[in-house]
Design goal:
The protein is mainly α. About 75% of the residues lie in helices and about 0% in strands. It contains 4 helices and no strands. The longest helix is centred in the first third of the chain and has 30 residues. The two termini are about 30 Å apart.
């Protein structure tokens, strides 16, 4: 597959964050379906539901915010934040996951995309004429 090198790195990174976010949404949807189908309850939450959902709201906002921030931040902070956010999100995906087949598939795709984000950010050379 040939990649168009004329696409700005900011756009590439932002688009990759969109892919991560969509995968995270579907992983959660599939997990809810599995839990409701087989157990008719969601029992395995590690703490009170309100706190778990609050933490999830914070963590899932990382890729949501990165969709925008990858397009607007200045080069140095953009590059650094993409690397940090991707590593943080990998930790979340691995640490918060399950061994169900759907999660393994979706999480694997998320991790591959997040590693691509890290590599792209590391290789990114500032060629922005606007800074």
């Amino acid at each position: 597959m040939k990649v168009d090198k004329t696409i700005d790195t900011r756009v590439k990174l932002s688009t990759l964050w969109i892919v991560v976010m969509i995968n995270m949404i579907f992983a959660d949807i599939f997990t809810i379906f599995v839990e409701l189908t087989y157990k008719n309850t969601i029992e395995e939450l590690p703490a009170e539901v309100k706190w778990v959902m609050a933490i999830a709201a914070i963590v899932t906002n990382v890729p949501i915010l990165m969709i925008y921030l990858a397009r607007v931040l200045p080069y140095k902070s953009n590059r650094l934040l993409n690397i940090i956010a991707a590593i943080f999100t990998i930790i979340y995906v691995v640490g918060g996951g399950s061994a169900t087949p759907h999660y393994i598939i979706v999480a694997s795709i998320e991790i591959i995309i997040l590693l691509i984000i890290v590599v792209k950010a590391l290789k990114w050379k500032n060629q922005d004429i606007y800074e």
